[in-house]
Amino acid sequence: MAMTPLVCGLQLYVGFTLRVFVNRSVTMEDIQCYGFDMDYTMAVYKSPDYESLGFEMIRDRMVSVGYPHELLRYTYDPSFPTRGLVIDTAFGNLLKVDSNGNILVCSHGFRFLKGVDVHLYYPNKFIQRDNTDRFHTLNTLFNLSETYFYSCLVDFFTRCNRYTNLLKGFQHGDLFMSYRSMFQDVRDTVDFIHDTGILKERTIKNMEKYVIRDPNLPVFLSRIKAVAKVFLATNSDYSYTEAIMNYLLENNPNAGREKRSWRSFFDLIVVDTKKPLFFAEGTVLRQVDTDTGKLRIGTYTGDLHAGTVYSGGSSDLICDLLDVKGKDILYVGDHIFGDILKSKKRQGWRTFLVVPELTKELQVWDEKKGLFEELKRLDVFLAELYKKLRPPSACCVCLQVLTYRMDMSYGQMGSLLRSGARQTLFGSQLMRYADLYSSNCINLLHYPFNYLFMINQTCMPHEAAAQHAADVASAELARTNNTAMMGRN
Amino acid sequence: MAMTPLVCGLQLYVGFTLRVFVNRSVTMEDIQCYGFDMDYTMAVYKSPDYESLGFEMIRDRMVSVGYPHELLRYTYDPSFPTRGLVIDTAFGNLLKVDSNGNILVCSHGFRFLKGVDVHLYYPNKFIQRDNTDRFHTLNTLFNLSETYFYSCLVDFFTRCNRYTNLLKGFQHGDLFMSYRSMFQDVRDTVDFIHDTGILKERTIKNMEKYVIRDPNLPVFLSRIKAVAKVFLATNSDYSYTEAIMNYLLENNPNAGREKRSWRSFFDLIVVDTKKPLFFAEGTVLRQVDTDTGKLRIGTYTGDLHAGTVYSGGSSDLICDLLDVKGKDILYVGDHIFGDILKSKKRQGWRTFLVVPELTKELQVWDEKKGLFEELKRLDVFLAELYKKLRPPSACCVCLQVLTYRMDMSYGQMGSLLRSGARQTLFGSQLMRYADLYSSNCINLLHYPFNYLFMINQTCMPHEAAAQHAADVASAELARTNNTAMMGRN
Amino acid sequence: MAMTPLVCGLQLYVGFTLRVFVNRSVTMEDIQCYGFDMDYTMAVYKSPDYESLGFEMIRDRMVSVGYPHELLRYTYDPSFPTRGLVIDTAFGNLLKVDSNGNILVCSHGFRFLKGVDVHLYYPNKFIQRDNTDRFHTLNTLFNLSETYFYSCLVDFFTRCNRYTNLLKGFQHGDLFMSYRSMFQDVRDTVDFIHDTGILKERTIKNMEKYVIRDPNLPVFLSRIKAVAKVFLATNSDYSYTEAIMNYLLENNPNAGREKRSWRSFFDLIVVDTKKPLFFAEGTVLRQVDTDTGKLRIGTYTGDLHAGTVYSGGSSDLICDLLDVKGKDILYVGDHIFGDILKSKKRQGWRTFLVVPELTKELQVWDEKKGLFEELKRLDVFLAELYKKLRPPSACCVCLQVLTYRMDMSYGQMGSLLRSGARQTLFGSQLMRYADLYSSNCINLLHYPFNYLFMINQTCMPHEAAAQHAADVASAELARTNNTAMMGRN
Amino acid sequence: MAMTPLVCGLQLYVGFTLRVFVNRSVTMEDIQCYGFDMDYTMAVYKSPDYESLGFEMIRDRMVSVGYPHELLRYTYDPSFPTRGLVIDTAFGNLLKVDSNGNILVCSHGFRFLKGVDVHLYYPNKFIQRDNTDRFHTLNTLFNLSETYFYSCLVDFFTRCNRYTNLLKGFQHGDLFMSYRSMFQDVRDTVDFIHDTGILKERTIKNMEKYVIRDPNLPVFLSRIKAVAKVFLATNSDYSYTEAIMNYLLENNPNAGREKRSWRSFFDLIVVDTKKPLFFAEGTVLRQVDTDTGKLRIGTYTGDLHAGTVYSGGSSDLICDLLDVKGKDILYVGDHIFGDILKSKKRQGWRTFLVVPELTKELQVWDEKKGLFEELKRLDVFLAELYKKLRPPSACCVCLQVLTYRMDMSYGQMGSLLRSGARQTLFGSQLMRYADLYSSNCINLLHYPFNYLFMINQTCMPHEAAAQHAADVASAELARTNNTAMMGRN
């Protein structure tokens, strides 16, 4: 059955904020199975309302367990945090790093540290990211509110003159508050909010305010299901999944006349997946009784019935149930580690990363790409200066200013993906592990289902150099020939 | 003191086989310390003579411990193995994989498996590289001879009709020879050859035949030492290091009139480094008595004297002794894992990977880049076909043929760095961990010591798309304007 | 100050059920600090009421999440489970093992397996206890109710003819219920009951029913505090600790006229200790605000004030705060692993294990020790038979019958500490790690505080043999002499 | 077939130095398979000649690699070291500890530290044995020479006034020699001596001097083989095994008239076993070509032929080949960890520990058991003093003196198995893991093959107390009755 894309296939005509971008070529015709995460993938939360809600819950709980009331004055500022930042729990700093652990940006509370100050903390401007006991990477959009709240904490205690600033925390009379214990308190609070379900409860009560419902979602899933198998694999529990998916699909204005269960859009639904464990040994697979929302005791061993809901399991079990192999699956998720890196490295799945921030990133890039061009020109100029053995100091300052200006266009912490000319850890992971990425999974709708997502073949540095040398030579040849020809004329 | 490079600084004029290539910009002016590995870095072994020597030692030893005499008929064939291949000890296959574990090429003995056959072994055409108990990556040039010998073994037993072929090995009467035990025997043999020192002995006896002596090495090191600290850090023991470095530097025709100890070229010499352990906790640091070649008992605690030789230690100790920080060091080595990945990830050093194969890689690329261009054109054509919903099967065959032709230009296993349009594991590690790379460390001589190695800033796919859209728009605008203008005319 | 014990010091006069038993000599005069666990140490729960309560909560919750209603018919039977049993989650068996993993008793549900049947599951009658993924040891009195409930589950499904018995679980139509998943469900349910605090709530509401209040406890603690430092270290949270300790000490009829806070009995109180982690790296130490029950933010760094309550921390921190060393501390607890083994092996503390079951064990022993004597005589007889090369089969049967009769005197699973002549895992751990043990910590009151708990020095087998040989020889000598003397008369 | 033991079966008549001692009853009739280690089990090395040889080789090599020539003055002193001591590589001390890590004896070089001095190093008189990076336990008789040599080293440098004593080592000008690096040097030297085979070479050259040949060994093995399967499992290589076993069995004066291969005494011979790995995952099993001594390539898969020699493998493979289960095997070895603990804990085998030191231990015990009796009496007296609240200080000194006198009867480090009344780590491991033990494996010959090794059933402390109370009561009753009866008369 030939599919008609909503928007015609010529890529040029897809507005670039709606596009799917390609790190490794994917022939959609070969994809026999689509898997989706739910949170921030199917269900995108409204920013900054949702993050504000999370922030306030953390803040209020922290105050209620004894943190100073002055903290209540802080409100969520979406311009500050980005995903992929690293908290150094020893010194209370927030770090933006590249894939090798080199520090790109460092803030202490809301104060951004200059190079010399960064050196005081990190003599080599470098961290050993493997030390996960000390360094915590905030990989998901759910982490934005805690990232921001932790900065508020550091900001407050640093400024408050009741507290003395020490290297590893604050002293107040007989009391020592380490950055580490403050981080632990924030983590415990976040766990409390998730475990008690109070954030979910508030979300469900006010769906319109917190969850984006894309009117095209029913059409999108129907079309996929017509050509391939479809599954949902979420770490959320069944009752929340039910509430969210019901809102997205059954109550969708575009849901169509005939009432259709949201579960009928999927061949298989798996909740409580415990990703990333799901992509390794997994847990026991249980069937969910969709009437009561409770787990059936025992494990279902019969044939697959469409729309059946399971809890737990593993990616291997899912492949068995759906009778597909890793390479046949395109898995769509928002979690660079739990969804994308793990499914790629452990199982060899095709991956599609949803990056909601991309809409803004593209916008800023479009407006400010002049800065990047300038940066490139300055690089070349700087290289020339070095070749001519001239002191390049003024030029370096220029570079820093440009990088800073470029960063500031994105927000206080700069872009999710780069700092000036350098790529962030998140950016490099996106390029390594996500075959495709886009601001929204529904953007797949703009492409026919037998589309070939093709990378622009790039050369390695030595190949490019060889290429360049050849081009120059042939240009030279052409010039000579031309001259010769001209001479002839 | 201003340095005059042997070859003038404008990069264009450095022949591209002599160039240093850049993955991340490095300002040489900031480098205060140069570190060098010895084997395949300072001392490049002559290929294929040296690999042949290793191969024969392995082969003869294996026969002497009981493997069939028919194996003596095999000789080393440099056109077969490349670095970075993976041995699957379960099935006896040699694999070329990309950074995510997807299989690019698979051979069994000398037979290259077709897609369908690969699927029989690996249903997902994918391996979990983390399973190091099963999969062994052959990262160094020293591994070439054993890689080849293992293929000879598999080839022999597969063809020999005394043996029955089973999935995991060969049966011969009551005897079962698993691929795994054969691999273990090869490893044990290689260890025997290294531990007994017989390979080193043969090498030292015939230096001219096995070791390349670059006449520029003394000049190169002298120049570096004039502007920065220099150290040698090798896993070899002292006596071998002494023999090799003496040959390279003291017996060098360009060594200069005044007799100068090879040790005087270095501020610090460390042998028995046990890399990669050296970049982590390391071992006890001992001083070597250069008269006897024996270790001094105890650890030296005084000031650093130039040319002192140590054994063991760790990268942290070296930084202390030389009073430098990780970012100040450019470390030059040939081992992608032990030298480059570890010094970069654990210590944040600047890294320079020596890739002797690069000379040939560049040569082939230069000759055959037409194939790559064709590959790119075919990709575009294929994408167009998909957009127009036409069956692309013929085109796919073309792609495979082109990829195969391109691979064959490099050797039977194809390029070290790519397979058609896809990058190998080795290639991707080179790009991630080596700031600079070149076919020979001495190529640094072609650049002034305050050179800025600058990367060509690249855009991420979404940025490139935005760029492209803008270009098209402005081209369109220009066209319109032109037309308008033309209309005006 | 000389202490007058409640009961005079001559050990003989302490009824043996009130005694403290000795595995390694302890000079009480050297003990400078007493530490106590709370649950089952200070606060002993009334058996079987408390276990019944736990059992019913587990049972009801399991039924409410979907397990068959028929399970409601089961009630707690205190004669079945003992501490220290091992669940084999693969086959659903309950095992009693010795310290080396040899199986002493094996039940499947309530059916006790005979030797041949045990061999079917365990060909070597042996388990590798290290495999903690498969084998779960139920070390605490809290585990009794789940131990029993798991046996009820296995019993029910084995008998119910709706289910087919398979090696690793039960099949019911399309549903497979593995022993492993059933065990997981029980564990999850127990966690639910503890995490939600519903068991604690019910306990607090009906203290009289569930908690034994020893009238001597205030006197006991006062006396100790007069001669040494005293601390409480419990894994329970503050509010539960407050409720329990208040009941035990402040509402105690013997509390004395003057109202005295329970906290004043201790120099230091630590809740949320997370033992066994507490004896290793521990967690952050926080102060508890005893007015609100909430944690103070930050860590207290000042001097120690008596009765201050902390949360978390580690044994090292406690030693620092109290200024004592490991050997100065006698730690009294009921958890063989979390309290006793860890404090002994990691910290070198003196240990006192509370074994409430000991009252009954001693009672049975007293009544049935004739059986043990008989067992010993039978052993000797058997050995004689072997020496005389006679077939001992009838005798072996006798031994089994005797062992069975002895076991049955204790309960269905036999004694906590032995099975016939062989010691259980629990028994051997008690002897290795507990310096002292008793049925109740308050039994220490029967001894003066400068008492010397002395072991009866025992010989190793070869020493005993040498001893015996000497005794025989001297007896022989004596006999000869006697005869001689008699002859003289 | 009924066996006639060489010595009649009544245990009393077996001289106690020839006896087998029992920790757990073993019915020999059930043993279907006997396994033997070779070194120090079948082949007992002559003490102190063999240890002296090892000592001299270590000493000479250390001097030849640069340690001071004065060390050559040291000679081996068998009265100093015992097995089971622990080296603290941080402080250079030699420790004798109990099973929980409490320090019993501590020497620095040859100086024995008093209590206060021990406290300076170990404030709690306790070590965390788990820290195997710091603490090395010297478990085998092979370790005696290095134990002694390490003490010589510490002794020399401590006394030599060229060196300054520091906490962690010695300073000499610019050179620091840590205790840790000195320990590493000794270990490396020992490895060198074993790897190069020079110790084995010297042993083989002078068998009479170094190896005890028991004339009864052929008879012993023949008798066992008549009733059970027999295997040899040694970590030694084939050529050494061949030399030793040939000397023990073929050249044995009692070997009998007909020439019989030593291999014919065994059903299976396994060399290169790599115990303790052998009792876990093991290595590849290879057949040894007994003509050439080389490994056959491949793995033998056919039936078992008596006397076949294998290399590698694992205990599981051995059970398969011999068709026996763990409980059917009695494994006889001298290595408490590699042979006994591992085979018992991982595989549930029956175990027999050979303790050559036992001959002397028994001799000393026999002579000095009066001291132990005195110790026991003093204990009782001390306990009485405590009860009567009298200062026991003089008595404590007495205890220490007695303990010291008892220790000195065994040697400078005291007994292998105890220190005064307390058991060593080695002693407690012997009791936990060895079912049987004896000074020589051949002592089994003194028992019929259907013997029942029976433990003397012992009571736990609380059982003994109950027993005692009952005895007292019945004695009291008897006395009363007697009195009554007497009254009647």
Notes on the structure:
The structure is a homotetramer of 489-residue chains. Chain A is globular and about 75 Å long. The first copy, chain A, has helices at residues 49-64, 115-121, 144-159, 179-195, 198-205, 207-210, 217-227, 238-250, 315-322, 336-347, 358-387, 393-410, 425-433, 461-488, and strands at 20-22, 26-27, 33-36, 44-45, 86-88, 93-97, 103-108, 111-112, 135-137, 164-166, 169-172, 175-178, 211-212, 229-233, 268-271, 285-287, 299-300, 309-312, 329-333, 350-354, 418-419, 422-423, 436-438, 452-453. In chain A, β6 and β7 (103-108) form a beta hairpin. Residues 1-12 and 484-489 of chain A have low confidence and may be disordered. With 489 residues, chain A is an alpha/beta fold. In chain A, α1 (49-64) crosses α3 (144-159) and α3 (144-159) runs antiparallel to α4. In chain A, the strands form 6 sheets. The first copy, chain A, has a 9-stranded mixed sheet with strand order 1-23-20-19-3-14-15-18-16, with helices on both faces. In chain A, strands 8-7-6-5-9 form a 5-stranded antiparallel sheet.
